[in-house]
Amino acid sequence: MGDSVDNVPGVPGVGPKTASELIRTFGDLEGVLAAAPDIKKPKLSQSLIEHADNARLSRELVRLVCDRPLPQPLDELALKGLPKEPLQQFLMDQGFRSLLMKLGGEEASAALPARVEDAIPFVHADYETVIAEADLDRWIASAYEAEVVAVDTETDDVDCIRANLVGISLATAPGKACYIPVGHGRGGEDLLTERPEQLPHPLVLAKLKPLLEDPTVLKIGQNLKYDLIMFRRSGIDVTPYDDTMLLSYDLDAGLGGHGMDELAKRHLDHACIEFKDVCGTGKNQVSFDMVPIDRATEYAAEDADVTLRLWQRLKPRLVPEAGNRVYELVDRPLVPVLAEMERAGILVDREELHRLSTQFGEEIIRLEAEVHEAAGGPFTIGSPKQLGEVLFDRLGLAGGRKGKSGVYSTDVNELERLAGEGVAVARLVLDWRQLTKLKSTYTDALQQQINPATDRVHTCFSLAVAQTGRLSSTDPNLQNIPIRSEHGRRIRHAFVAPPGHVLLSADYSQIELRLAAHMADVPQLRAAFAQGQDIHNLTAEELFGVIDRDTRAKAKTINFAILYGISSWGLAGRLGVDRGEAQAIIDRYFDRFPGVKNYMAETINQLREKGFVTTLFGRKTHLPGIKGKTVGERQSAERQAINAPIQGTSADIIKRAMVRIGPALEAAGLDKVRMLLQVHDELVFELPEGDVEAAKPVIERVMAEAAEPHVKLSVPLGIEMGAGRSWGDAH
DNA sequence: GAAGTCACG
DNA sequence: ACGTACGTGACTTCA
Known about the structure:
This protein has about 725 residues and is of the alpha+beta class.
């Protein structure tokens, strides 16, 4: 990366370094200063400000070194005012223990021990249940004193939009944790039939609010987005915060899951009390408000205790290992943004979905009869096993291929092949499959997902699932709403804006190919994007010398193959040519675009050496499969290694756009524009009709400039936008 | 709970 | 010899 601090005065032999590298070299900020006793302070400051990879770090360096008024911040700094105690909070946040001790005394840094004490056992009996007001006050005071507190909320539902608060747990030191019940025994049937003695819910929240919002106390959570939403619903804005799930994700993506139970096993060698041991499972499961309070305390306080201990293990690894970039710049600030998107939800036309369900249902019944007729008897069309036997055994069609479990493949490729050969039943099954898919997954299911209180659908975005840094969406998944087929597209038209409003969709045009052109440094591709040329036409021209429908389609397939980590077998299968021909095309591609070949070789080398690959923002994806037993496993890791930096950089960029879009809109006076959805390269907004023309340029600018200043791209990022009454109309 | 299938980028 | 692209989540059938 090109950002460097040239000629750092007073640091002989250090050479060009980014701020993060300086920190890494000397252990912490104090080390940097110690190594540079005769630093020309203002000059260092200016230099760091201009070149450092963490603007916030730079600013605090300047503040520390110069003790004079700060120049205007460069990046995120512009988005937020400084907290009350910026330096102390920042240092604690960064894990600069020794400096904190010097400035704030021993007690200020007690929460971040240089070495984690392994010996403190988990003793459930030591956890405290807070029933009296004085005890609550004592715990709050202890959190202020520790300047760090792990927080966990217990509720009666995994869906935090409709969940009720049942209790809150706090931990201020390993082994020192409490549980504050507020909603137990609310009309339970078996376990608790009346409300046991508890502090009133509003009182507890009123007492916690100043603590949770205090800039000098760091709040720590595991999957904090959930708790943030719960607190936001009560008018509490938790800040500042750390999330152990995200720390794990940004440090160890690819090495395992990031749920608390798994992290506790991995890092603390501790088996947490499992939720199902407290609440049961299946039809015997009860919600948390029905759990007796003493049992609830063991479970809930342990969660906060574990979270605090995980933070002590993970946070100190951040600067040395993760380069401190994606966590600070991307993932952590995204949490409240996603929380607001989930809270907002999107309006769905229930009647339209119902009409589509009815319509699809009637068509499915017709198709079912036709399939059975053609097959010579009834069978379960939805059973791949039965369908395969009907097609390839009963009807005796040729070309049946059995997989390792001994069933014939009947997927879309196979059925399309048969349909192309004139097998009528194959086309009927394809149509039946499409409509049952649309009905069961979308038109039926989405109606069930509409929240009766808001009349809207509230998805849950997960930050720590995808190996590459992408988000994922569940309950319902709003990142796979149909668009490609005509029937499917009608479902998109059921996602609408309320009266007087429209939906605006903004998407990055071919962002992954643009990033590949930049990362592999391919002059022709860069020039084509700079001039707005059609990129598949360019590939067709380079590879085949002619541009027509056929060569362009082939070129498009090849461009995708490049992004996914090419193999001659895979390309052959997609293009319908033999393997030798596919290999010839690949060779020709590498010949025309040698940067791509080099990029792939370098990336795989890096993977073999380090065990991970990185995005332009420094996000890691570990791929232990590169050391796998089989060739297949190792080649799979190689393909992932090619794709992960591209897909991951794209994810980093749109996430940064999401973090910056709110403040940018606010600065433009567009406070009624709400971001609702992210679909990997697309953002969907809901806004008053009259705001569309003002909002478009703001959104476009933020998205187009989202990589800057930390990453300088050699290709422009193109944005396409549209607005309409429905999501379907916004494209 | 695994396998197969298919919706999206 | 190996293998039919990268990343997800939801639904259905069936053991």
